[in-house]
Design brief:
Strand order of the largest sheet of chain A: 2-10-9-8-5-3-4
Radius of gyration of chain A: 21 Å
CATH architecture of the largest domain in chain A: 3-Layer(aba) Sandwich
Strand content of chain A: 15-25%
Number of helices of chain A: 9
Distance between the termini of chain A: 29 Å
Order of helices and strands of chain A: EHHEHEHEEEEEEEHHHEEHEEH
Largest interface: A-B, 63 and 63 residues
CATH topology of the largest domain in chain A: Aspartate Aminotransferase, domain 2
Helix content of chain A: 25-40%
Shape of chain A: globular
Oligomer: homodimer
Structural class of chain A: alpha/beta
CATH superfamily of the largest domain in chain A: Type I PLP-dependent aspartate aminotransferase-like (Major domain)
């Protein structure tokens, strides 16, 4: 069997050392004669894990004072509801940027709680670019964006200046580049794309935004309660938090988010170059909005896609088929993916072009 | 280091074979050259895991037609809100039995959504028994019970005949005994006490109870959506579902829930016998309501508790200190705990009694 190169869109590739640490913790943890999986979350061993998982987020992203960091459950999809539940009172408005499937889902949930103003949308172009030049209404409670669109392969290279707090779903590009957290009101991210495994969600929130809506919030959906209890209001997803910690330890060892950005740029550049130069392939998105996490491309002759897909699979390239909304191919090249995997893909693309010249 | 006997109240002890399977899956799964942790949840490998995790629940508990089984996130604590969100309209009433801390939390959340009638409570006796002889109002939308009270060491040995659907939090005793699912409207259980690791919650629900409230339900809190999407409306907690599957495979191999019941009775009987016969110890709950999952006991002379705690720890008995609400000790003896661990505890109790006669 060839080495498998994992281009899965998520759950996605993780650092090998994190998976090895996870395997070890399943059997025995900290020399205590017990598996991490069967330890009380109130014991000092797991408390140290949670503390480190939180402090690594603060350190790596430079989270300023006045912000809280919590690990929750339910994925970004639960955040689509929790954000307006906590921030948007009935009769108030929130602004949303519509850049794809996940933005749409966020919009749908927000409408349950208040009014939604979609400031701009690239829907008519099948979301192949990030809208720009829109106006953010000053009376909005917040402005919601999706920083990277996993399905459509676009990414916000800049965040707009906003008169209201910006809320960002960073599920598929968090920890892939430096972010000025002070420019955001709330950042959330499902862990399973770039910072760990499925089963936990990171939330970074500016404390002074909370506690202002009049509705009663169920405890498990109330950010203030999770913050007050240090992500331990109820039993946290122990193993998922541990894997986030191990993944972030690796990010730090590698040089932090600046190093991740350099790594991502190098990988993305090499792959987009091949897409642009290889006569058989073409990218699907506006060049200036190209994602450095999810590289989407199709073939000039769609009838060749099946054959290319088979050759890629035979060469150990896993997870390449594109999402049905775009078709073609999608190479998800998250932090943990090595440059050699890009080279393997580029090599298959070149070989295929030669054979089909 | 002596063998560690794990009496943790939760996350609690798991079958060794499940932890070994988990460790292996962290490194490589199904011969695919990838870790389970980095595989798409939409791929056939994980779909097979989810299917088996669901079908084992149906098989082991004999779930009848007309019920759905889903794996969610957020723990039982999120169910405290989801149950009334889905079943209790504003102005309607639900009946609750108050048997301890978790029942109280469920009651608190339900009050956000409708009216709550507490039919009976053992609060005045520090929840050391299960109330009986109460009346369940016929106009209640449902009647909520906690089948086993992890903190106070009581367990419902029988479920009442009810004129309205019974909703049961079975977090700490599910799969420890046969249950006639047809007598329930909804059963939920956080996995981390008796059926897996922290990070997923099992819900079994009678389909015809759903879709009747008038309020809008956020997608992630709507049972109907999770059912329609086969627990994959969004990325499920992959590893937690896998560990539930592996744990339930073990339950089946051991002979199913009847075998688990026999095992639990034998373990509980042996430990309660020592508590009753040893002059230094006494149980904290009414005998007829004693839990076969969480055995709570204190010492006749409280000043000896610190010394006993130390001896227990030195003998490799982990997780024995009682919850602060009860004090003393709590031996959580979930499915995976072996009889030899009970014997180890009994032996330390006897030795301690001899030395302190």
């Amino acid at each position: 069997m060839p080495k498998i190169h994992n281009f899965s869109a998520g759950p996605g590739i993780l650092p090998r050392q994190a998976m090895e640490a996870g395997a070890k913790a399943c059997l025995e943890f900290n020399g205590k004669g017990l598996s991490l999986l069967e330890m009380s979350h109130r014991g000092k061993d797991f408390i140290a894990v949670m503390d480190q998982a939180v402090s690594l987020v603060k350190e790596l992203l430079g989270v300023p004072a006045g912000y809280s960091v919590v690990y929750l459950q339910g994925g970004a999809s639960l955040q689509f509801a929790m954000v307006p539940y906590n921030l948007l009172d009935e009769g108030e408005s929130a602004a949303y940027l519509d850049t794809g499937t996940w933005a749409n889902k966020a919009i749908k949930e927000a409408k349950i709680f208040g009014n939604v103003k979609v400031v701009a949308s690239s829907k008519d172009a099948n979301y192949n670019f990030i809208p720009k030049g829109y106006e953010i209404p000053k009376d909005a409670k917040y402005f919601h964006v999706t920083s990277n669109n996993t399905i459509f392969g676009t990414q916000m290279q800049h965040f707009p200046e906003s008169p209201v707090p910006v809320v960002a779903d960073m599920s598929s590009d968090i920890f892939s580049r430096p972010v000025d957290v002070s420019k955001f009101g709330l950042i959330y991210a499902g862990a399973q794309k770039n910072m760990g495994i499925a089963g936990t969600t990171l939330v970074i929130v500016r404390d002074d935004l909370l506690g202002k809506v009049k509705r009663k919030i169920p405890s498990m959906l109330d950010y203030k309660i999770h913050i007050a209890e240090g992500s331990m209001y109820n039993t946290p997803p122990v193993f998922a938090v541990y894997m986030a910690m191990e993944t972030l330890k690796w990010v730090k060892q590698m040089g932090g988010v600046s190093a991740m950005q350099k790594r991502a740029e190098e990988k993305a550049q090499r792959l987009y170059k091949e897409i642009d130069e290889n006569p058989l392939f073409k990218g699907t998105t506006a060049k200036e909005d190209r994602s450095r996490m999810n590289v989407t491309f199709v073939m000039e002759k769609p009838e060749l896609e099946e054959a290319f897909g088979k050759e890629a699979l035979a060469a150990g390239l896993s997870g390449l088929p594109g999402h049905r909304s775009v078709g073609g191919f999608r190479a998800s090249i998250y932090n943990a993916l090595e440059l050699e995997s890009i080279d393997a893909l580029v090599s298959v693309m070149r070989d295929f072009a030669k054979k089909n010249a």
